[in-house]
Fold these 2 entries.
Entry 1:
Amino acid sequence: MPQKALIIVDLQNDFCPGGALAVTNGDQVVPVIQDWVNRFHHDHQLIVTTQDAHPSNHVSFQAQGGPWPPHCVVGTPGFRLHPDLWLPADTPQFHKGFREDQDAYSGFEGLLSEGGQRTLLLADFLRQNGVTEVYVAGLATDYCVRATVLDALKEGFKTWVIADGVKGVDVNPGDSDRALVEMARRGAELI
Ligand code: VGL
Ligand code: ZN
C-alpha cells in the first residue's frame, strides 16, 4: 500500500497564463510537479489531482455577485489540466465546487470523479489507500493550495508543501507568502 500521496491542486488551464483566472507564471510549476509525478510513479506512491469544476452560473462568478470571473467551467478548455503535465492514465481526479450555490477551495471538499459519478471524499480515498503523508503542489498558493493544506493537517495527515511547486494569485501583495507562513505555523513542512 502506498504511504505517501502527491496532491496536485487545480493545475488547470484557466489558472495558467492565457486562462480566465491566470496565476502569474502559474505554468512554471509544471516541470517541477512533473519531476514529483515521475518520482511518485516510479516508487508506486499515490498521485491524485483536484479540479475546480464549476457550472457556468457558479456562485463565485462576478455575474452571480461572487469575486471571480467565470473559470474552470466543466467541459471548457479552461477546466482541463495543463496539457504539458504527464500523469499516469488512471490518476484519480477529485472535483470540487460543482454545486451552483457552493464554493469549495479545499481539495478535501472534492469527490472522486469517475464514469460521470462523483463518489468518495478525498480524505476517505487516501485513508483507504493507506496514505499517512501528503505532498501538496499546484495553484493557487493563497486559495486552493492553502485550504487543501490546512484541511490535510486537520484530517491528521503529515503534510508537506512543495515550495517551488506552488504559485499564488496575490490579489493583495504578499498573500502567498503569508499563506505559506500560516501553513507552516499550523504544522505543514515546506520542502
Ligand atoms: C481557486 C480562486 C477561485 C484556486 C479556485 O484554485 O486557488 N482560486 N477558484
Ligand atoms: Zn473556482
Entry 2:
Amino acid sequence: MSKILVIGAGGVSSVAVHKMAQLIAAGNGTFGEILLASRTLSKCEAIAESVKQRTGVAITTAQIDADDVPALTALIEQEKPDLVVNLALPYQDLPIMDACLATGTDYLDTANYEPRDEAKFEYKWQWDYHDRFKDAGIMALLGSGFDPGVTSVFTCWLKKHHFDRIDTLDILDCNGGDHGQHFATNFNPEINIREVTANSRHWEKGQWVEGPPLTQKQEFDFEAVGPKNMYLMYHEEIESLKTHLPEIQRIRFWMTFGDAYLTHLAVLQNVGMTRIDPVMYEGREIIPLQFLKAVLPEPASLGETTKGNTNIGVIATGVKDGVEKTLYVKNICSHEAAYEETGNQGVSYTTGVPAMIGAAMMLSGQWRGKGVFNMEEFDPDPFMEMLNQHGLPWTLEELEAPLAF
Ligand code: NDP
C-alpha cells in the first residue's frame, strides 16, 4: 500500500483527498497513507477533519512552503511518500519537481507551470525535465485534472475505439453553476484571471492562430445547462495534444462565461486590477491581481451556495473505415451532488477526482514510464472506467454533422 504526499489545501486538494480516503475506507488497496501539506496548516487540518467525519479515515498534516525546495526535500526524505501529488498552484510545479528529483519520488499535477511575472503557460519548462526524470528512474504525470486531463483521455479513447484518424477536435468547457455572488472564480482567482485574460490561441494546419482575448464567441446548447455563450481561448492541452496526436488538423478550446462575469472582468481590467506587475502602495510593492485575489471569495468557500451543473466534453470529427463522423464525449457534474459528497463545488470536484484517478493509475502500475508524460501517452481505458466508478460518468453521442462553426 502506498503513501501519498498531497501538496496544497484548496478546493481541488480537498476533493482529491476525500476521494483517496474513500478508496482507503473501501479497502481498495491502492492508497495507504495520506499526508496533506500546504502553506496554511489550518486549511490542511480542516480537510483532515472533514475526511475523518465523512470517511472515518485519519490523514496526517504538515505545514510546508513548496517554493522552498530544501524544506520540501527534507519533508519528502523524512516521510518517504511513493508519490507527490501537487495540488498547489502552477507556480509550484518546478520547485516540487526539483524536490521529487532530489529524492527520487514520482510526481503528478493538474496544471502546467507558469512563471509568476508573465501570464504565459507552456509545457516546455516541464518537458525539459524529461531526461532528468528518466535518468532518475522516476515518473511525472502532467495535467491530471479535467481540462487538461480528462479531455485528453476522452480524445485518446475516441481515437482508440472509434476513429482511424481524428481531423478536428473541439474542447467545450461549460460551468452552468450559479454561486450567488456578483463576481467569483471557480478555481484560484489569480490563475483563473491570468488564463481568461490571455490571448486566444488555437492550432490549425500546423500552426498557432492567435487573437485578442474573449472575442470569438459561439452559442452552444449544453445538456443539463441550456444555451450558453462560449469563447475561444488558449488552453494548455492544445499544446500537448497537437504534439502527441499530430494528425489533428485543428484543435480549439471553448469556455462559457456569463455576461455579468465578463462585465466585471472588463471593469477590473480597465482599472488595472488584473495587472501582474508590481505597483507601489503605501510605500510597499503590491501586485494588483494578488490583492484582488485576497478580496474575492475563495473557490473552496463557494460549495455551499453553488447550484447547477458543469458540462465538459470533446467533439471530434474524423474518419473510421473511410466514413466521416462526429462524436461527442462529455461528463455532466452536479455542483450540489459534489458538495453533498465532499463539501466542495463541481469545478473542484471535476479536477480533484481525475487527480485521484491519475494517482491510482501510477500507483497501480497501469500507467508507468520513466520521464515526464502527458495524459494522452497512456491507455485511456482504465482511466475511463474509473471515471464511471468514482463520480464522473461520461456519455458518448454521435452528432448528425460536424460543428457548423
Ligand atoms: P486554491 O487556490 O483553492 O488552492 C491552492 C492551494 O495551494 C492553497 O491551499 C494554497 O495555500 C496552496 N499553496 C499556494 N502556494 C503554496 C506554496 N508555496 N506552498 C504550499 N502550498 C501552497 O486552488 P484550487 O484548489 O482551485 O486549484 C488547485 C490547482 O488546480 C491549481 O493549480 C489550478 O490551476 C488547478 N486546476 C486545474 C484544473 C484542471 O481541470 N486541470 C481545473 C481547476 C484548477 P494557501 O491556502 O496558504 O493560499
